[in-house]
Amino acid sequence: MKITVIGTGYVGLVTGTCLAEMGNDVLCLDLDASKIKVLNDGGIPIHEPGLLDMVLRNKATKRLGFTTSIEESVAFGELQFIAVGTPPDEDGSADLQYVLSAARNIGKYMTGYKVVIDKSTVPVGTADKVRETIAAELAARGVQQEFAVVSNPEFLKEGAAVEDFMRPDRIVIGADDQRAITAMRDLYAPFIRNHDRVIVMDVRSAELTKYAANAMLATRISFMNELANLADKLGADIEQIRVGIGSDPRIGFHFLYPGCGYGGSCFPKDVQALISTADENGIGLKVLRSVEDANDDQKHVLLNKIRSRFGSDLRGMTFALWGLAFKPNTDDMRAASSRVVIEGLWEMGAVVRAYDPVAMNEARRIYGNDDRLVYADSPSGAVAGADALVIVTEWKEFRAPNFDAIKLALKHPVIFDGRNLYSPEQLRKKDFEYFAIGRR
Ligand SMILES: NC(=O)c1ccc[n+]([C@@H]2O[C@H](COP(=O)([O-])OP(=O)(O)OC[C@H]3O[C@@H](n4cnc5c(N)ncnc54)[C@H](O)[C@@H]3O)[C@@H](O)[C@H]2O)c1
């Protein structure tokens, strides 16, 4: 099939590349010329395990190309995936300007039948808006041209995006047009050879399914974070509680890890957008509102622990920070807890010496050259001479460090662990003061 993917971010680039890997001809459009230059020069603009090799392989076979030309991209694919950003607007609702601008471009230039696929996470009713936008452009041109609009939300996880896309646990297709449904089934058939995982539903339900999934996952995290804070006060151990409840098959073990708050480009904005959709419809989503509040508080949990231990005047102190990305295996720092911690430490007068295996360039892009944020080239470089260590991302390389060396390097043997990486007992034996989340 000939496919156009609009937007070469975390979702668009993975989608386009994986579709090319299955033998399709794919052209990816981005209006950010610097991203297309990186891609045409043999790199990728994001960190995503396994993606660079796949991009290079498919570029070499000419099944995958990149362009900034809207006209060329509209002409190319019968299937047009819209995978542009849907950031939060000022009121928390999803900002649809990029999605609708992509739709306008399709309407402006299309000459044959197109299936337009909303891959971006978009509020219920967006497919209708995309359809109206394209129809208005066609009408302005005085052209009659058939097209279909399909919702196909993406469930990939950053850091495991290629694997998730190549082996999806489900493919949701929201459509009412039989020709489009057949095209989508044909497209995804190679990804689900062992058994059918396509779930066809109406468009609105598909749009809401994506928000429901992220809202449920965010709810589990906030629930565990609140319980962990209570466990802290009660002298109980959230890790034991996690095992105790996760073994109930109705609950399960996934997404029960407490920490210093969820971040990333999806949960925070999707929870907000769903609350906003509900508000517009006169339905107060009380649970979800609390999920968001709890998460905002949780991002300060490490700062509160630091304040309790060292006071709120941290002038002259340096804190080592392990992790900048919102989670391991990505360079994405959108809404990352690290940002709240960095900015909170600055407010109290401290300097931060940070190490992250892949996100330091992203941090430089966000914070520029600020003397209060120093970058170390290794975990041990970050702790050398620092007052204490703060951990916000559970990268594998942080899981089994040399504690004796850390103790020698730090001015105070104090670790604030926002991801519960270590055994409190082991650290106590080594005479560390260990502050984790809900651990005894
Ligand atoms: N990141 C994730 O893990 C993830 C997972 C599932 C769903 N989603 C959803 O997918 C969508 C994209 O997310 P992302 O993280 O890939 O975003 P992103 O910001 O990484 O990428 C979006 C890209 O679209 C480009 N763009 C914007 N307008 C354009 C236009 N009119 N034409 C061409 N290109 C345009 C931007 O330049 C950018 O490169 C969002 O709706 C997001 O909620 C993201």
Describe it.
By secondary structure, the protein is of the alpha/beta class. The chain has helices at about 10-20, 35-40, 50-60, 70-75, 95-110, 125-140, 160-165, 180-190, 205-235, 240-245, 265-280, 285-300, 300-310, 335-345, 360-365, 380-385, 405-410, 425-430; strands at about 1-5, 25-30, 65, 80, 115-120, 145-150, 170-175, 200, 320, 350-355, 375, 390, 415, 435. Helix 9 crosses helix 11 (about 265-280), helix 9 (about 205-235) packs across helix 12 (about 285-300) and helix 11 (about 265-280) runs antiparallel to helix 12. It is globular, with a radius of gyration of 24 Å. The N and C termini lie far apart (about 55 Å). The protein binds nicotinamide-adenine-dinucleotide.
Secondary structure tally, helices:
18
Helix content: 40-55%
Shape: globular
The radius of gyration computed from the alpha-carbon positions, rounded to a whole number of angstroms, is: 24 Å
CATH homologous superfamily classification of the largest domain? NAD(P)-binding Rossmann-like Domain
* Ligand kinds: nicotinamide-adenine-dinucleotide
Entry summary:
The protein contains 18 helices and 14 strands. The chain is an alpha/beta fold.
Descriptive tags:
Rossmann fold; 3 domains; 18 helices; single chain; N-(1-d-carboxylethyl)-l-norvaline Dehydrogenase, domain 2; alpha/beta; about 45% helix; globular; about 450 residues
Outline the secondary-structure elements:
Layout lengths: L1 E5 L3 H12 L3 E5 L3 H8 L10 H10 L3 E4 L2 H7 L2 E4 L14 H13 L4 E5 L7 H16 L5 E5 L9 H6 L4 E4 L3 H11 L9 E4 L1 H32 L3 H9 L20 H14 L5 H13 L2 H10 L7 E5 L14 H11 L3 E5 L4 H8 L5 E3 L3 H5 L4 E4 L11 H7 L4 E4 L6 H6 L3 E3 L5
Parallel strand pairs: 1-2, 1-4, 2-3, 4-5, 5-6, 7-8, 9-10, 9-12, 10-11, 12-13, 13-14
Helix pairs in contact: 1-3, 5-6, 9-11, 9-12, 11-12
The chain binds nicotinamide-adenine-dinucleotide.
Nicotinamide-adenine-dinucleotide binds next to helix 1 and helix 5.
Pathway: Nucleotide-sugar biosynthesis; UDP-alpha-D-glucuronate biosynthesis; UDP-alpha-D-glucuronate from UDP-alpha-D-glucose: step 1/1
Family: Belongs to the UDP-glucose/GDP-mannose dehydrogenase family.
EC number: 1.1.1.22
